[in-house]
């Protein structure tokens, strides 16, 4: 299992849920959420480049609800 898949399985929901409104954490939470989105985009892109569109589409569909 590659590191992007492990990260995606471990990380659920926005960073610092419930305390992200603390001014000292707000920018770090935004940075971590952006990083997480980048990992997801990379996983989807790799799946497509490897000729696995079904798996990439499933990853995008399953993970997209978590980003909201």
TrEMBL record:
One Pfam entry name: BTAD
UniProt keyword ATP-binding present: no
Keywords for the protein's UniProt record, in alphabetical order: Two-component regulatory system
Taxonomy, superkingdom: Bacteria
Signal peptide positions (record): none
BP GO terms, sorted: phosphorelay signal transduction system
Coiled coil: none
Domain spans labelled Bacterial transcriptional activator: 9-59
Name used for this protein in its record: Bacterial transcriptional activator domain-containing protein
């Amino acid at each position: 299992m590659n590191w992007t898949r492990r990260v995606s399985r471990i990380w659920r929901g926005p960073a610092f849920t419930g305390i992200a409104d603390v001014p000292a954490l707000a920018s770090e939470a935004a940075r971590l959420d952006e990083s997480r989105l980048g990992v997801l985009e990379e996983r989807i892109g790799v799946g497509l480049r490897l000729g696995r569109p079904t798996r990439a589409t499933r990853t995008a569909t399953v993970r997209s609800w978590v980003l909201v």
